[in-house]
Amino acid sequence: MNKHHEPTGPSDGDQITLRGPAELADALPYLMGFHPTDSVVMVALHGNRGRFGGRLRLGIPRSPREWPFVSDQLADCLVNGSERRGGRPDGIVVFLCQDPADGESGRQVMERLRPFAQRLRTACGALDVPVFEALCITDGRYWSYCCPDERCCPPEGNVLALPGTSVMAAAAAYAGIQVRGSLREMEARLTPRQPADHEQVRALDAAGLALVPRILGGAEREEVGAETLALARRLMKRLGENRPLPASRPDADAGDDALISHDEAAAVILGLQDRETRDRAAEWMEGPDAEPALRLWRALARRCAGAYETHAAAPLTLAGWVAWSSGDEPEARVALGRALRSDPEYTFAQLLHQACNEGMDPEALRRCLREERAGRKGARSRVVRTRQATRSVRPQAAARPSAPPAKARPGAAAARGRSRRQEEQRGRSEHGRP
């Protein structure tokens, strides 16, 4: 589930009024930052003028048997979440977005999802929050589940406005708001190729055999972490020196993939499974490090093929963190959502996902990571100063003059001379000499 909250908006004089289902349908991609495919989106409205508030998105459950439970959960999450942030919603707008299946028409999609829309309206009404509008968007058209007037909402639906031609599109362009394509396209940038790349799987197998015993053994854990970060830093430098040309996102991603070998990707992916190594990699979150780091984490997530899908939680979470830190909340939510889909129990992704969804300022975490980095640098500098001091003492000790030889006691030489003469006299008497 991705819960979206209202960003800092324009001043009252710059606000835009949306009138009717057509303008609501056209505004949805600008509210989310992308076209939400295969999704249910709910947006809270506040005040007499229906100011947009919190919003959430969830993939449409495949089984209709899940719709009642999911509807209750979504309504409760949006209403109670809005209350925690300071305001109970006065109304809700619901969007159901899904492409037709093979052989299915847009109208058939609308009718198939009608029970889900009705269940969502009932769940919101049970919390005393009315649904002002519920729209189905599919196959380039939209239908209203709330408007019975066929003059404005005919059975065949209404055609969506051409992209970039509405008042909302003009206002978004003026405000610098970008729509990054569809949710499916955004997820494709973070998803391994299918079928699985067998060469990459073999490289991951080999890296696992080489690195996992060293990490789990404990003695070489820090060494593996240092090797992982050094290799990641080299890959970031390589990516930074080869900026993608203006091209489609798939082409840009393919260019990044070509710059990273299977063995390099496998070594970093396995190394990032260590929590401390991953946390240190999270420090590349701002400034000139952010852009190449995000490209690297995306590329590594695309390499987690086959049985290594759960290993993608680490690079996906790092990608989500860097995107959030850089102000790109739509990509952050998509990346963190995929990380939790890869490993629902991944704590770092859970915490970031919650913080991003609750509208927290990432600066608090950035400050914490900066302090961690500064603390390590301070500790290293103290160690270096200690070593330099030790080296400066040792030469002095080596140059210290050796103790002078002990001086002979006065008379010692004369005593040795008398003893020698006495021995010679004794020898002559023993041989009969005078």
TrEMBL record:
Residue stretches of biased makeup (Basic residues): 376-385
Region annotation Disordered: where it falls in the sequence: 376-434
Biased composition (Basic and acidic residues): 420-434
Database matches in InterPro entries: DUF4192 (IPR025447)
Biased composition (Low complexity): 394-416
UniProt-recorded name of the protein: DUF4192 domain-containing protein
